[in-house]
Design a protein that fits this description.
Helix content: 10-25%
Strand content: 25-35%
Distance between the termini: 45 Å
Structural class: alpha+beta
CATH superfamily of the largest domain: Immunoglobulins
CATH topology of the largest domain: Immunoglobulin-like
Number of helices: 3
Order of helices and strands: EEEEEEEEEEEEHEEEHHEEEE
Shape: elongated
Largest sheet: 6 strands, mixed
CATH class of the largest domain: Mainly Beta
Length: 333
């Protein structure tokens, strides 16, 4: 598969927005050095091969001004050779480990014409369980172009060791991190499906999309969850709201297991009165969102992080920013 990298936004290295890489050159082949993972980084200098390692980090937005850094764990990392005017070549694929680190063993470093390769990495919000993007194209396996981060291309790479580790780690900026946050939420809830049912519901597809006036929605015709990314929406964007993401995932479960009716989508909110059919449909999605986090209270936070609507799916109470209203929520079962 060839990814289109023309419009990627790159953001590298805390405190430095320069090329996030370091190449150590050795002129004496008898000198031996090892990377932190134990690779012998001198053995490949003169036989046209490279090794590489790095760390990948993303931001979790907890409030308007509070963000925490986390390593990006168990995601595929691809190393590519850029071919200007031609088709880029995928050289190897590996995965980040439980601390966000990745390693590539010796990779041949020679073009067909005898020149050295132009190397770049791709780390995308895509696994077997989930793919998250903001645009679509039929040439991609799931019809969605996954959001990717990548350091700049290293042109005409000398054989040796490429290091993308601290303090030159690869960093997803806030807007990019939202895609990985959503992907992580879906991976967790997908695991809950497997643990409780033993079934595989295949890859969940999500689009972070400006849905002005509509809010987040699952469309069963395309089997795609659209997460509202409109910053001006009264209770959006939704890509930092795990409860909303899991709610829409619940609608996908209705479709996958053919229970209730996942086609009844219409504008609704926590305390809106609905038909019995719609109440069951939304009630299950509420239930699933509460089930996966083991908490009956669901929230929907607005873009300013100053207020959030909430509902208790066990007793039907709802409110806004801590205010409790005793009217039962008709859309909850």
């Amino acid at each position: 598969m060839v990814r289109d990298t023309q419009d990627l936004d790159f953001n590298l290295s805390p405190g430095s927005h320069t090329l996030s890489m370091e190449i150590d050159y050795q002129n004496n082949v008898s000198e031996t050095s090892e990377s932190d993972n134990g690779f012998d980084t001198s053995a490949y200098w003169y036989n046209g091969q490279i090794t590489a390692e790095g760390e990948v980090w993303w931001q979790h937005r907890l409030s308007k001004y509070n963000m925490t850094w986390h390593t990006l764990n168990f995601y595929p990392v691809e190393i590519w050779d850029r071919d200007i005017g031609g088709v880029d070549d995928l050289l190897a694929t590996t995965f980040t480990n439980d601390t966000g680190e990745f390693y590539f063993g010796p990779i041949p470093n020679e073009e067909e014409d005898g020149t050295r390769q132009d190397i770049y990495l791709m780390i995308c919000a895509e696994t077997d369980a989930v793919v998250v993007g903001d645009s679509m194209h039929l040439s991609y396996p799931y019809g969605i172009i996954p959001k990717c981060i990548s350091p700049d291309t290293i042109f005409d790479v000398w054989s040796g060791h490429i290091d993308w580790t601290y303090p030159f780690w690869i960093e997803a900026d806030t807007s990019e991190s939202a895609f990985f946050y959503v992907a992580n939420i879906v991976r967790q809830t997908d695991s809950a499906v497997t643990a409780t049912t033993g079934l595989d519901i295949n890859t969940t597809k999500l689009m972070l999309y400006d849905l002005t006036g509509a809010g987040s929605i699952y469309i069963d015709t395309f089997d795609i969850i659209f997460i509202n990314s409109d910053p001006e929406e009264s209770f959006g964007p939704d890509y930092w709201d795990a409860d909303v993401v899991n709610h829409e995932f619940g609608h996908r479960l209705e479709h996958c297991f053919d229970v209730f009716d996942s086609t009844l989508g219409t504008i609704h909110w926590f305390h809106k009165s609905t038909s019995p059919e719609m109440a069951v449909n939304e009630g299950f999605a509420h239930f699933w969102s509460a089930f996966v986090k083991n908490d009956p209270v669901l929230f929907n936070v607005d873009s300013s992080w100053t207020c959030s609507s909430w509902v208790n799916v066990e007793n039907g109470k709802y409110g806004l920013k801590g205010v409790c209203l005793d009217t039962p929520c008709d859309a909850t079962i």
